[in-house]
Design brief:
Rossmann fold, 204 residues, two-stranded parallel sheet, alpha/beta, globular
């Protein structure tokens, strides 16, 4: 299976969620477009236990500026084209991490979420709690639904807000896969514990 991790915005927790998914599913990882350093691939590699199961595939584009891919690419005179992306060969499940939120532009025509459509991937949505996150989550879900993109479920991130979670699940009907707390530090041991929790919810 191919899973595409997208979120309601930038810094929502996609990379940590992707590491947890890789650990839980013993899946490979791929970040097609990286803007800024350190790379998310490096972060995922540091968070995973080094058992050799997960292959971290190289990025198609690595851009220097931490900005929207279309803007970062323009600064480097690079044109990102949807047809340039091909799913890497993989024997395991594949976790693909998007850049920013799902409607972030790759160029004047294509958006990050168009990668999920191109790859025929199932989306895993990451939502972090803040004032306004209900609206942003529901808008993101509407964007996914309008494109007929299948969504496996939702991962919540941050200080728990029971009413926000309840109303989001009520309006979307999504399966809650995991809640990631605000941890003092994130390391391999913490990732393993969350992976166990995610596996127990995976087929719920």
């Amino acid at each position: 299976m191919i899973y595409f991790v997208t979120a309601i915005g930038t810094d929502s927790g996609k990379t940590v969620a992707s590491a947890i998914l890789c650990e839980a599913l013993q899946a490979d990882y791929w970040k097609p477009v990286q803007a800024g350093f350190p790379t998310d691939s490096e972060t995922v590699k540091e968070l995973l236990n080094d058992d050799g199961q997960t292959i971290i595939h190289p990025e198609r584009y690595i851009l220097k500026t931490p900005a929207s891919p279309h803007a970062a690419a323009a600064l480097e005179n690079i044109k990102i084209q949807l047809e340039d992306f091909e799913v890497p060969d993989h024997d395991n499940d594949l976790i693909i991490e998007g850049a920013g939120g799902c409607l972030v532009p790759l160029n004047d025509r294509d958006l990050v979420i168009d990668l999920a459509t191109k790859f025929k991937a199932t989306v895993i949505l990451v939502s972090n709690f803040y004032l306004g996150s209900i609206n942003h989550t529901l808008l993101t879900y509407e964007a996914l639904r309008s494109r007929n993109i299948p969504v496996k479920g939702i991962i919540f991130n941050g200080v728990y807000n029971s009413e926000s979670e309840r109303i989001i699940l009520h309006h979307t009907g999504l399966i809650p896969l995991l809640h990631i707390d605000k941890e003092q530090s994130m390391n391999g041991k913490v990732i393993q514990e969350y992976a166990r929790k995610l596996k127990s919810n995976w087929n719920g």
